[in-house]
Amino acid sequence: MSPRDDETPRRGTQPRRGSSRDLPADEPEETTGRRGRSSISDARAYTPRGRTVAERGRLPRSGRTTDPFRPALQVLDGGDTAPRARGRNQGARDATDDGTDSRRGERERAVPRTKKEAVPRTKKEPEAAPRRRQPARPEKRPERRPEKRVERGSDRRVERPARRPEKRVPAEPPKLANSTRRLRLGTVLALSLFVMIGVRLVVLQVATSPEEAASLLELRERRLSTVELPAPRGSILDSSGNVLAHSVEARYVYVDPENAELQKDIPGTAAKLAPLLRIQQSKLIELMQRKQSLGRWLKFRYLARGVDVAVADKIEAMKLDGIYTHSDERRDVPGKDLAANLIGFTGDDHHGLEGLEARYDELLHGTDGKRVFEVGKGSLGAPIPGGYEQFTAAKPGNSLQLTIDRDVQYEVQRFLDAQAEKKKATVAGAVVLDARTGEVLAQASYPSYNAAKPEDSDAQERIDVPTSVVTDPGSSHKAFIFGAALQEGLITPDSTLKIGPALERGGEPFEDTHPQPKGTEMTMPGLLAYSSNVGTILIGEKLGKEKIYEYQQKFGLGQATGVGMPGEAEGMLLRPEDWSGSAAGSVPIGHSVSATLIQMAAAYGAIANDGTYVQPHLIKATISGADGKVTPAAAPKTHKVLEPAVASQLRTMMEAVVDVKGGTGGAAAVTGYRVAGKTGTGKMLIDGQYTSHNASSFIGMAPAENPRYVIAVSMDVATGGGGDVAAPAFSEMMSYTLLHYRVPPSGTKPPTFKIHP
């Protein structure tokens, strides 16, 4: 049903566009002569707010009136405007001749123009012309008179009294959007989102349970692949910068056991690789099998390291499934067995295992780098372009410069090998020492091995004899007793001593190798030349055990020298309180005491260096792998043992060992140079037990008047003493060393020594 067009809307007459609610509204005009026209908008009872009949019952919001800036919409029908009215009931619309409804069953409501005044509806309203904008009219108070309502019947007209006018309900203004509220709401939502993200991050990093953390790590590990970048290992150089050991470019071959194609034919792949890698096929098959470690299936296993570049290229050309190569390095020792026992070797992981390689591994190895990158799924495992990638560059290791002279080392090792093989020695060692600086110019061992192929040798062949083998020094220890007695003023170079063929101490007999009749008087040089045990024991008794022990320590016995080799033995001294009755006879002549060859060489170095002990050392400097900066090694420790004059007297007395006819060290003579030294014959200790062999040695210096070098040679042989076993090798080594360093020959002849006064 459509609303009646003769009713005033229940919300009241809307103000004209541009009018103010405080101004009086225009008088409603009557429509005469015809019935009001209707339209679709009239049927909907269109109001300025576009409300429908269903919305009529809603009450307006209090305190709100019509928006004066929003024009009231009117429906034009044929150019005329008609008053709109809305009835409660839909009925037939029959207009009367005078323009009023014949059935006015409802009261018309008069809308007050102000709060105090109301404009009554007139009885008849003429038909209005098209609405035009008119100037505002002065406020006029209309008369209040009753209004009649006329209903049209079939034959008669019935007039009914008009209803009392009702107050108009002001129209509700339109709802406008609140931009401030939208901004606040958006801000709150954005802040809430960031707070949620922050809380989640805190939970992940702080409050995550171990299980969740392990799960996250597992997910990360599945996506990331790590490739180790080995740091270039530093080189080992001789004193002139010549390479003794260095790393060269190579390749390593590895397998991905998770490769599906590889697992289909592991024996066939291993058979192709075995001859190239020189590894047994069975071992390769074992390495190619799938293996789980720490809950993860391994995707990387080494097959071989240090492979030649040419061999690796052949393997790459074969395009074997799951087999790959990568850049690597291999330790190369140009001299093969040259100073091999001294230098040592490295393992497959480029870490030192023995010798200087092991002792200074941290300095030589450097810091490995790595490349971590994100890989895709599948067997290819290729890096994802633009994915996560982290690259840590490897820091090259530092190089080590030794005091070793490559040429001297070669010759000393050659002489030692020849003499050891001639004398059928089980082990032998030699040390060449700079008497003034303590630098070790050569340090050789017999037997030796090829450091480039250490797997072809056994552990016994790889030991460094001068620092590892402990022996009784024997008669070479007698020089310390004579030096201490000279320093303490108990003897002089011109002193004499009566001796016999033997003597007994603590129930043990001690005999001379050159027995003299009882009561034979001998000089101090004569006692040294004939290596008299009896005379040395008698001088030792003058010193006393406390003084002997004191000077043993001053000469560096009983403690490691710190030369730089790993596992250096300390030797052993017998404390005075531990001396037995026989110790008074055994200790002075070099028994009941043990020392290494490097200890004995350093002790003789103190005699050669005018009584000042200089710590022997192998390291000259370190060279930075980053910028090549050379850092000299720390200065060696020194301390005074003898007065220079005493040291000179002792050296002169020791020349008798080489120059006196029938002396024990005649074979150690060097043409053109004065040589001072002492022979020794002791026993080698193995696991605390003496062997049946003789540890024969000779330790000497030249030129005797102003020593430059000290050489110590020792061999473990079945028979023979230091004079005939070690002295010949000493002579050859010293001769070459003096000529190599262009040391002028001695300008004076050795003195003439008397054995008997």
Q: How many beta-strand segments?
A: 29
Q: How many individual helices?
A: 21
Tell me about the largest β-sheet.
Answer: 7 strands, mixed
Which parts are unreliable, with pLDDT below 50 for 5 consecutive residues or more? 1-8, 15-39, 43-47, 50-56, 59-65, 72-138, 145-155
Overall spatial form: elongated
Beta fraction of the residues?
15-25%
* Cα Rg: 59 Å
Distance linking N and C termini = 163 Å
The SS-based structural class is alpha+beta
Helix content: 25-40%
What is the typical, i.e. mean, pLDDT?
81
List keywords for this structure.
757 residues; alpha+beta; seven-stranded mixed sheet; disordered N terminus; single chain; five-stranded antiparallel sheet
Describe this structure in words.
The chain is built from 21 helices and 29 strands. The strands form 10 sheets. Strands 4, 5, 8, 9, 14, 22 and 23 form a 7-stranded mixed beta sheet that branches. The longest helix has 27 residues, at 179-205. The radius of gyration is 59 Å and the shape is elongated.
Secondary structure layout:
Layout lengths: L39 H4 L104 E5 L4 E5 L17 H27 L4 H14 E6 L6 E2 L5 E13 L4 H5 L1 H12 L3 H8 L3 E2 L2 E2 L3 E7 L1 H10 L4 E10 L7 H4 L1 E2 L5 E3 H5 L1 H5 L3 E6 L14 E4 L6 E4 L3 H18 L4 E7 L5 E7 L18 H4 L9 H10 L8 E4 L2 E4 L2 E4 L8 E4 H6 L3 H11 L1 H10 L28 H4 L10 H12 L3 E3 L4 E5 L6 E3 L5 E3 L3 H16 L16 E7 L2 E2 L2 E2 L3 E9 L6 E9 L4 H4 L1 H14 L17
Parallel strand pairs: 4-14
Antiparallel strand pairs: 1-2, 3-12, 4-5, 5-8, 5-9, 6-7, 10-11, 12-13, 14-22, 15-16, 15-29, 17-20, 18-19, 21-24, 22-23, 25-28, 26-27, 28-29
Helix pairs in contact: 5-6, 11-21, 13-15, 13-19
